[in-house]
Write a structure and sequence with these properties.
The chain is mainly beta. The protein has one helix spanning about 25-45; strands at about 15-20, 55-60, 65-75, 80-90, 110-115, 120, 130-135, 140, 150-155, 160-165.
């Protein structure tokens, strides 16, 4: 799946990962889900002050791997849904509650994260954010004992554990 970046300005885009109850939804439930998402945004209003775009990922419960992705954009200080909800997946053991993430626990972190460097399978993308086209030598180091921990590496590494950025299947 190719991700489309919207808008002309990427002055500040953030990723907010939070626990939020969602499931197979009727139109009314969808409306309620978006309203709950907006409550999460409201609760993080101070941290999002300088952001004008927001990606929000939510799950039913911390142990669920199925998630929902929303994209919001702020115009005149009002957040509006511009994409979603879209089915998504988080860590193989769900999401860590705020402040409880441990490397290797199989959980996605919960929190507010500024986006910077993008990685893509494509040679070119429409974005003002810097990006790297990933290949078979690209890795993200998750070995907490490695000097390259939590860094992007192209080529060989002595790290005992890492994620390949080029997946075998992107279905």
């Amino acid at each position: 799946m190719r991700m489309h970046m919207w808008g002309n300005s990427f002055r500040s885009m953030c990723l907010l990962i939070a626990l939020l109850v969602t499931s197979n939804m009727t139109a009314q439930q969808l409306t309620e889900s978006v309203q709950k998402a907006k409550k999460i945004i409201k609760a993080n209003e101070k941290s999002l002050e300088k952001a004008d775009q927001l990606l929000l990922v939510t799950t039913d419960a911390e142990t669920k791997t199925e998630a929902v992705f929303y994209a919001f954009e702020k115009t005149n200080q009002v957040w509006s849904l511009v994409h979603g909800p879209i089915k998504a997946v988080v860590g193989r053991k769900g999401m860590a509650t705020p402040g409880s993430k441990i490397e290797g626990d199989g959980k996605s972190p919960t929190g507010l994260f500024a986006l910077g460097q993008l990685f893509s399978y494509e040679k070119t993308i429409q974005s003002t954010l810097p990006f790297i086209q990933t290949g078979t030598d690209d890795k993200w180091i998750d070995d907490s004992e490695s000097p390259d921990y939590n860094k992007y590496v192209r080529g060989k590494t002595n790290a005992k554990s890492y994620e390949n950025l080029l997946l075998k299947s992107i279905d």
